[in-house]
Request: fold
Amino acid sequence: MHIAGHPYTVLSQAEIELIHRSALRILSDMGMEVQNDDLLHLLAEYGLKVDFQAQKVSFPSKLVEDFIATAGKYDWEEARPYISSTAGVYHCLFHDPASNELVPWTEERLAYYFMLARQLSHVSVACMLGSRLPVPAPLEPLYERYYCWKYGAEEGGSIHLDEICPYLLDLYQVLADERGLSVREVFNGTVYLVPPMKLGQHEAYQVAYFLERGIRVGIGDMYAMGGSAPVTLAGAVTLNLAEQLALRILDWVFNGRKILHIGCSLMAMDMRTSIHPFGRPEMAIANIMSAQLARYYGASFSGHAGLTDSKFPSVESGAQKALTGVPTLLTGGSLWVDAGLLSTDEVVSPIQLILDNELIRAMEHFTHEFQISERTIGLETILEAGPGGHYIDKPHTAQHFRSEHWQPKIWTRQMLRAWMDEGSKLDVDKARELALEVQAQEPEPSHMSESLEREVLLVIEKAREALVESS
Reply:
């Protein structure tokens, strides 16, 4: 018995069918812009309707429904719930645990943050998108890989410029040679649909460039309700469903991957400030609706969650992360948390990273497989204790409490007087102490071999000469 990953029915069958029919209309009548003729020719070969002049592809309803029917299905009955987590570093400031100030990144701070992530039990890896250190803008994707490989993190996969593609290819060839693998096996690159249902000129070029060389580029998306998507949950979820189906079909045509997956990255747009807040309940509601749709299609599911708009570690940050994280885990059966982030990804905080690790540890208890058996019920122990009895001295308690009960490391385990006697430390205080303790440790050695680092820097210098010094 586990708690997460069970059906949560919020949509009626009639509502599901209405969303499905509406998504099919969007795909067939509106379609998607794909601003690259080579990609459009590929799509036409697979039976999709292509208007080369408008650079638009339409998805006939029969083709979409045939794809849904024949794509690999996700077995929700056999799936076991899980949580995964990374420590993401995006376009942001660093929350210094010593001064409590928001400061620019340095190489020392970056190496420290990656090392801290590795020391936390429920943060699997650190990840960086772009280069947070001051480098020439055209070279950011190259430096992203360099610093991630050097300090033991995963690259986020930015590409940005068309002109960087050959140098990224050279960079991954160097890495592939080092590991004895093919470039296709080590490559990590992603582009994003910024406006909905539109693979723009540069993103499409980058997909086509690497596809011509047998390399897959991921395509991601994100919506703001009232901005890039309808303001209503019904409209936003429907448009998101259409785009998710379109992206799965593109992946099938371009890469031969006939996989059915529904992702949901929907947030409300604040109509007063026009920001895209992460800590609102609409994000969780959209995830719940989309998880039910995923079950309807037999698709796997992922939902954007566990994030916050709070600027510093606080009650607000914890509440917002739980507000979206717990419902998404319970209904979707899985949860990916980008830990350590504050202020809609504008701030990265070692203190918040440690607090998020504790929250993830607690939420993981929802995925725990509890046993319902004669042994775990302990009927003889209940009968032995009798009316008004207690269980603290029973062998049954000693045998099971560690596996049945989650044990906190940061959250308090004391009543008020004992807590006051030990310094009245809040969770933020304990997290700061741990952050400073790790910061005082000796830096780790480079995660790159000398030969790999030398070859990577040679590629970067070639790119610098071509894209920076010659301009």
Summary: The two ends are 62 Å apart (CA to CA). The first helix runs from residue 13 to 30. The chain has 18 helices and 18 strands.
